[in-house]
Design brief:
By secondary structure, this protein is an alpha+beta fold. The protein contains three helices and seven strands, in the order ββββαβααββ. It has one domain. A hairpin with a 6-residue loop joins β2 and β3.
Length: 136
């Protein structure tokens, strides 16, 4: 389970789905639009804050486990995965939830553990091919 309150001063301390790497996230309310900041080592990624709520709504509508399929921006996301949805023109933002050019991918890696930490979703923690679903 994650620690932290989700502020810049006290970020959520999270682990990737296979529990192999640690990272931090926080809600940046001062950005317009509000964003989720993801700090992975010295690299900082940004996602639309609304991605948390939108991903939950999509998972609830999906109704079952969904593969995460995390991929860098430069790689094609596997079909029918959280990653593919996070960059699809048919999602609520009409494209990428990642907002930092060149670092817009990995939505399917970094958002699922946050939803789990917030008590909104379940995430498998296998070495590969992790999945998630909205909490019943």
């Amino acid at each position: 389970m994650a620690t932290g309150s989700g502020t810049r001063a006290d970020p959520w301390q999270l682990k990737t789905p296979p529990n192999t790497a640690e990272y931090q996230m926080w809600h940046d309310e001062s950005a317009s639009p509000e964003r989720l900041v993801c700090q992975v080592g010295s690299t900082q990624l940004h996602y639309h804050w609304r991605g948390v709520e939108d991903l939950l709504a999509m998972l609830q509508a999906h109704g079952d486990w969904m593969l995460l399929g995390g991929a860098d921006e430069q790689k094609v996301a596997a079909d029918d995965t959280v990653e593919a949805w996070g960059r699809s023109e048919t999602n609520p933002v009409g494209g990428w939830y990642g907002t930092k050019k060149g670092l817009r991918g990995r939505f399917g890696v970094y958002l699922p553990p946050l939803l789990e930490a917030l008590g909104l979703a379940e995430v498998s923690h296998d070495p590969k091919n992790n999945r998630m679903r909205a909490k019943p």
